[in-house]
Amino acid sequence: MDEKTRKELTAWLEFYRELGIEDFYRRARGSVELPASVNVAPAEPPVAAPLPTHSHSIAPPPRTTAPAELSKPLSAARVAPVIQPPTTSFNLFEAAPAPRGPETLAQIRTDLGDCHRCKLAGTRKTIVFGDGNPHAELVFVGEGPGADEDEQGLPFVGRAGKLLNRMIQSIGMKREEVYICNIVKCRPPGNRTPEKDEVDACSPFLYRQIEAIKPRLVCCLGAPAVRTVLGIKEGITKIRGQFYAFGSTQAIATVHPAYVLRNPREEKILREDFEKIREFLKGG
Ligand code: SF4
Question: What Å distances lie between residue 140 and 66, 68, 72, 88, 229, CA to CA?
């Protein structure tokens, strides 16, 4: 074996050893029929032995190389990928990605992308993901974006949003302190109630947002939000103002601000429920 081939082979062996693979076989010459036009390299890189199908622990080779040296190219001819040394003995077959840690809102937004998971994608202008403090103690969940929200890409920016802002201020908070989102992120045509298939497609992202924020309280605004978040089908006027367990956090149901705009005398209901929210948050 000439010097160049020997160095190249050494580089490949080092590379596989860093992966914890030590058993190799060499295909016998002549075992594969190659067309005459194919140029056979003077020496093939070694082929890693087939991986066993059952779980099997492979101890990493004894480390003799200083970590800093691992980042050096192993040969001028073939630069092997840099492999960070494991800090502990590991099992190659258990080296699957670790369970996903807590997601950030940015990661969830990236995953949502230019979403076309339901038919609302066909009529929206903008995806209204959510807005506010990513570490909020209080999350509001509404029904879906309206015309103003669709234009601006932000939730609750129309008349109902202004009323919500006033309610938030009435309990001594600012809008920037809370997080606001909806059960669907695209405007249903004509502001109709989101349909089941749309809610089914979109609500997993809502749950992930709540999981990422980990608020102390989720406030469901209106019946569709209550149905989606809490699975309660009773009328909103019956169940409003009550607290419910919701995973590791709690939720409260109240009427949607748009309902109060249509029924101004009902603003007292909203005020009562917001007082309960204030009391709850004070109690922490
Ligand atoms: S409503 Fe949700 S699931 Fe449907 S297209 Fe918009 S972002 Fe995607």
Answer: 53, 51, 53, 44, 11
